[in-house]
Design a protein that fits this description.
The protein is of the alpha+beta class and 288 residues long. The chain contains six helices and 13 strands. Strands 2, 4, 5, 8, 9, 10 and 12 form a seven-stranded antiparallel β-sheet that branches.
Length: 288
C-alpha cells in the first residue's frame, strides 16, 4: 500500500497526454536472428552426456560446451528455478537480464536469446524448446520464465522481516554453488551472482498497483526449458525455497522439489557451418 499523499492537480490536457500511443523501445527487425531451423535439425541428433541435480532449496553448477544443448527440467513436483550463466572462461561476461528483457520482453520462450553484459553483448544461449509455451499470458497478466524479478535474497528478507537471517534464498544458494565450483571465497563469488532467468516461475505486474506478483507455476514433472549454448558456459541453477511460488519464498514452509539439468550433445555434422557469436563490434571509444 502506497502512503496517502496529496495528489498533484491534473493538467487540462491530462487525457490527451495519457492517450499518446506507445513506441517499442528496441524494434527487433534488425536483431540477428537465431538459426532455428539449424537448431531444430541438431535437436533430432541429441544424446545425453551429463546430468546435474539442484536439490530442494539448494543450487548446483554445471558446464556446457559451445554447440551443446542443455535442459532445465522438473522431475518430482512443481518447482521454479533461478538461473545464472557466465562465460566459462571469464566470469566478468555474464547473463544480462535487463537487456534481454528490453530486446525480447518480460518473459522468454522458444527463439528468444539470453544476452551477455557489456562490453560483450552477444547471445550466450538460445531457447530451443519450451514445454510451457502453451501458457501464454493469463487473465491476470501472468506468464512463465520471467526476466523481471531479480532473485530472492537474504538482504531483502532481512529488510522485510525486521532482521531475519535466512541462508537458502536463491542469491545465497547461487553464491555457495559458485564458490564451491570455482574455489572463490564466498564474498568474492557473491559479486559474480547476478539477476536471473526465473525458469518456470509464473509472474506479472498487478494492474492496480504495478507491483511484481507471483502465482502457482503451471510446471509439471516432465516439463523442461531447453537451451543451445552459443559459447562455453558455466551455469548455476537454484531450486527456489518458494517451491512453485504459489504463496511465499525465502522460507522453509513451501513444498520444494529438485530440478535437473541435462547436457546433450548433437551430431557435429548437424551444426556444420555454425560458429559461436563474436562479442559486440562497438569500438569502446565512447566518443573520446
Amino acid at each position: 500500500m502506497k502512503p496517502d499523499l496529496p495528489e498533484t492537480p491534473r493538467p487540462a490536457d491530462a487525457d490527451l497526454r495519457r492517450a499518446v500511443p506507445p513506441v517499442i523501445c528496441y524494434p527487433t527487425e534488425t536483431l540477428p536472428q537465431a538459426p532455428m531451423a539449424l537448431y531444430r535439425a541438431a535437436r533430432a541428433t541429441l544424446r545425453p552426456v551429463a546430468e546435474v541435480t539442484a536439490p530442494p532449496r539448494e543450487a548446483a553448477c554445471f558446464r556446457v560446451p559451445a554447440g551443446h544443448f542443455f535442459r532445465v527440467g522438473s522431475i518430482e513436483g512443481p518447482q521454479v528455478g533461478d538461473l545464472n550463466l557466465w562465460n566459462a572462461a571469464d566470469l566478468s561476461e555474464r547473463f544480462y537480464s535487463g537487456k534481454t528483457r528490453a530486446l525480447h520482453g518480460t518473459h522468454l520462450s522458444t527463439g528468444d536469446r539470453l544476452w551477455s553484459c557489456f562490453p560483450h553483448l552477444r547471445p550466450m544461449a538460445t531457447i530451443t524448446h519450451d514445454t510451457l509455451d502453451w501458457y501464454g499470458f493469463d487473465g491476470f497478466g501472468g506468464a512463465v520464465h520471467d526476466v523481471i524479478g531479480t532473485r530472492c535474497d537474504p538482504y531483502t528478507h532481512n529488510l522485510l522481516s525486521h532482521g531475519g537471517q535466512y541462508h537458502h534464498c536463491c542469491h545465497s544458494n547461487l553464491t555457495r554453488a559458485l564458490a564451491s565450483q570455482t574455489g572463490l571465497h564466498p564474498r568474492e563469488a557473491e559479486g559474480h551472482v547476478h539477476d536471473v532467468l526465473n525458469v518456470f516461475m509464473c509472474t506479472g505486474f498487478s494492474r492496480e498497483t504495478g507491483q511484481y506478483f507471483m502465482k502457482a507455476s503451471p510446471v509439471r514433472p516432465g516439463d523442461f526449458l531447453e537451451f543451445f549454448a552459443e559459447i562455453d558456459l558455466l551455469g548455476a541453477l537454484s531450486a527456489c525455497p518458494g517451491g512453485d511460488c504459489s504463496a511465499e519464498h525465502s522460507s522453509d514452509a513451501a513444498a520444494c522439489f529438485p530440478l535437473r539439468v541435462e547436457i546433450l550433445a548433437p551430431d557435429p555434422a548437424a551444426l556444420a557451418g555454425w560458429q559461436p557469436p563474436a562479442p559486440s563490434g562497438y569500438d569502446r571509444s565512447h566518443g573520446l
